[in-house]
């Protein structure tokens, strides 16, 4: 009888674990990608001179984006956003960079901002390539005048892009070592590294990038531990800029002087 109860108890525990792990595996992308949909206003309504543009991905998706060109721009910034919201949340950054003489492309990934498709690591890699292709082929931006800016998850996206298509400079805001490392911080009870479909190995990729890199991170980041962002900078011998007391989503990490100086500092004269 005792043994039977033990076996029943063990079976219950195993069943619960299977349900928890199975659910985490099946719905993991719902936890990673948190898009806001559309419709969104015209680009010219959010910033004078803005253009609505369409990006065509390698797998045939048509993604909407906003392009804010500046006459005689010092450089053009391709902005790869983090995992939440849509491009409308990054308008203050575009406005601040435009005021400093930089053109800006605000990208929305597949599944974000009313775009078709479902976000995945491989899908985002195609999306950011479509953004770069537009800037170089259609907007006529020289690669020597092109900067990549990646925000959190977007830092992983542009770092991977920079291996194949090096920019003039790369600015990573709050990057993590890899997705499993930051996932383990928030889900310590799960075997995150075994479960993850999308890896985003930023530190591994950044070691292969041969372009000036600046890492900006908040000293009080509760989402991506500051030591992970610093580890990414160390992996590339890049410049690290800590914003003391800043949490992951604080406005100072979107339009603060440390971040803006880091981006404009990599732009040409």
List the helices and strands and how they pair.
Elements: H1 2-26, H2 28-32, E1 34-35, H3 43-46, E2 51-56, E3 62-68, E4 75-80, E5 84-85, H4 91-99, E6 102-107, H5 121-138, E7 146-151, H6 153-164, E8 169-173, H7 179-186, H8 192-195, H9 202-206, E9 213-218, H10 226-236, E10 239-243, H11 252-255, H12 257-264
Parallel strand pairs: 1-5, 4-6, 4-7, 7-8, 8-9, 9-10
Antiparallel strand pairs: 2-3, 3-6
Helix pairs in contact: 5-6
Structure explained in plain terms:
With 269 residues, this protein is α/β, with parallel strands linked by helices. It folds into two domains: 32 residues; 222 residues, 3-Layer(aba) Sandwich (Rossmann fold). It is built from twelve helices and ten strands. Strands 2-3-6-4-7-8-9-10 form an eight-stranded mixed β-sheet, sandwiched between helices. It has a two-stranded parallel ribbon with strand order 1-5. Helix 5 crosses helix 6. The termini are far apart. The relative contact order is 0.12. About 8% of the residues have low confidence.
